[in-house]
Amino acid sequence: MIRSARFVVSASCLALTAPILAQDEPVEQFQDNEESEIVVTGEGLEQPLSSLAYAGNTLGRETIVSSGSGRIEDVLENIAGFQQFRRSDSRSANPSAQGVTLRALGGNATSRALVLLDGVPIADPFFGFIPLSAIAPESLAQIRVTRGGGSGPFGAGALAGTIELESAGPQTLGPFAGSVLVNDRAETEASASVTSNLGRGFGVISGRWDRGRGFFTTPDDQRVPASARAAFDNWQVGLRAVAPLGDTTELQARVSAFDDNRTLRFEGADSSHQGQDASVRVIGRGDWEFDALAYVQARNFSNIVISSTRFTQVLDQRNTPSTGLGGKLEVRPPIDEAHTVRLGVDYRRADGELQEEAFSAFTGALRERRRAGGTNSNLGFFVEDDWQIGPLILTGGLRADYTSIDDGFFRAVDAAGALVSETIAEDRSDWALSWRAGTVFYASRDLELRGAAYTGLRLPTLNELYRPFVVFPVVTQANAELENERLEGFEIGLDWRAARNVQLSLTAFDNEVENAIANVTLAPNLRQRQNLPAIDAQGIEASLAADIGQVSFDASLAYTDAEIAGEGASIALDGNRPPQTPEFAASATLAWRPADGWRLAGTLRHVSAQFEDDKETDRLVPATTLDLFAAAPITNRISVIVRGENVLDETIVTRNANGAIDLGVPQTFWLGVRVGY
Predict the structure, then answer these.
(1) Which of 79, 452, 516, 558 has CB atoms 3.0–4.6 Å from 532's, for a disulfide?
(2) Rounded CA gap, 133 and 72, in Å?
(3) Which residue from 565, 616, 441, 579 is spatially nearest to 87, judged by alpha carbons?
């Protein structure tokens, strides 16, 4: 199955490139005639006025497809305050550590930001991480990032903000687009998309395959014979179809599948993540606008843990199947021109079960068989009103969530089947009310002032509640008693057009996450997931965008003063900085477009020091990296692509466990060919 899917992606790149290469002029597949005219957009409803009241950024197509690495996480790092749990990218990190957040709110590997693809939540149902390798940047039209708590659709996941990924349509992709690149380690990246008319709608088939032997994440002086490169081999394919159901209504449907395999640190330390997703969405743009959505996810994860002292298998997390399903209905009634009212309901359900075996590091004999899992669900009702009064916009929203945590358990038996330990968690449920309010004032033609206050909510994941894990020799225990996280915050800011093509944005914020879930140290080699009293974060975010002729400059920075606050069991952590939380992060991209189809760009990024653990004993040193990108057209549709990652070969420390170091991507250069785009 895996080999077949890889063959399909590769064959598509080769077979479909041939006729394109034979043409000097672009293919005009989408003609302006009645029979083939595309009358659907494939997009959601227009962004409400309320979006202007909250700090946000939009990344356009050109930025998305011209990163140094070609990875979606690299693209998102252009946004001030975006942060992965670790500094590793999706080739050299454990998939279960790919949580994303905004505003340096720290914590563990579960995402505190809501990530949507065409309106559909894409976080893993069991773990809550984002399958970054399953997102192909070249398939996207734009990315919108909104920071701060959310009360609209799926707001229970938008604790730190929302990242909305919007797929590209035929007018962006053209009839065919593809690329093939190879780097100086002989690793390859291949992608392709084919777009076709479907009556008055369209369909897109896309795929991507990345593979390589990887680099050594272990420093030279810490390598042993068992040390391995961070090899990776992942593919993803998707089919998206959009068709009209009437003059103002359209149907959007998507099915996709992905498979992601990696090796981390030692020979045999292999992880695997697979998924199959499907969604159906109906958009109505008449007098009564509406957005109706239903989706289902089937995911699985496996992981082998190798002893860092004897280099033998000590844990086989062989199977973690999970299912996510949900949907939403949002309606915007036509009240009057000054008001945009949103009414809706959404639902999400996640269930899954861990299946693993533990082995003796000395004899290799089976010690325990473990099972753990449960079901989490969330039913939300929301209402929001935007009211425009001349140069003033007022917005406010309420959201009520019924959360349920059921059927939770952990069970361990020895090799003979005798019970070692068992936890049967009590079913529990609760109602929670969230709100947000904001205002935008157009002080002048070029100056907008804004302010907002909000609350947010996040349920603990099945992983946090029931699944213990080991990063040898440190054991992290689960905690079936974890409570929901809750955000309270406010912000003020301005957006100023300093010149015709120069835009400055500045935001000051104060956010607090109550009951923040973190891995709390109990002993040198023992941690447990616990609710911290709170994480307080105050800071400043700024961005500057300038487009002057053939030259553009985009920069962002985030300064955050974050600390663990409050009294109780975690008083020893009071005043400490949350783990994996930098104080300062900045990104700046300078690009030059000397002619049509050309792009030369350099991106400089800096991340300040951060701590590996809650006790502030293991420090990750600052890192400053430079990425380069160049596209030079050969014909109207074919370009040569040159990319450079970490071209200054900065040492990027991604993990420091009592001096055991993991490193991020070293200096890497890519060369390839791109068709279309």
Answers:
(1) 516
(2) 8
(3) 579
pLDDT 10s digits, 344-382: 999 999 999 999 999 998 999 999 999 999 999 999 999
Task: Please name every residue paired with 374 in a beta bridge, in sequence order, or none if there are none.
Answer: 352
Look at residue 419 and tell me if it is in a domain.
Answer: yes
- For residue 496, give Cα distances in angstroms to 53, 276, 447: 14, 44, 5
- Average pLDDT, integer, range 617-646: 96
Q: Would you list the DSSP string of 235-288?
A: EEEEEEEEEESSSSEEEEEEEEEEEEEEE-SBTT-EEEEEEEEEEEEEEE-SSS
The answer to whether position 260 is within a domain reads yes
Helix (H) or strand (E) holding 333: none
Peptide bond into 666 cis (omega under 30): no
Q: Is the pLDDT of residue 22 over 60?
A: no
Is residue 673 within 8 A of residue 180, CB to CB? The reply is: yes
Which residues are CB-contacts of 471 (< 8 A; sequence separation ≥ 6)? 305, 657
Cβ atoms of residues 503 and 552 within 8 Å? no
Q: What is the pTM of this model?
A: 0.92
* Structural domain span for residue 339: 2-29+49-361+370-675
Question: How many Å is the Cα radius of gyration of the chain?
Answer: 25
Query: Distances from the Cα of 620 to the Cαs of 243, 252, 615, 662, in angstroms?
Result: 50, 44, 13, 10
Could you identify the residue written with the tokens 């640190």? 265
**Cα three-residue angle 111-313-188, rounded to 5 degrees:** 60
Residue 641 CB partners (closer than 8 Å, separation 6+): 179, 181, 629, 630, 631, 670, 671, 672, 673, 674
Gap between the Cα atoms of 650 and 626, Å rounded: 9
Per the prediction, the chain carries an average pLDDT of: 90
Alpha carbon 265 to its chain's center:
24
Q: Is 44 within the bounds of a domain?
A: no
* CATH code of residue 280: 2.40.170.20
- Asked if 158 and 456 touch (Cβ cutoff 8 Å), the reply is yes
As a whole number of Å, the end-to-end CA separation of the chain is 30
Per the structure, the count of domains in the chain is 1
Q: Is the Cβ–Cβ distance between 177 and 676 less than 8 Å?
A: yes
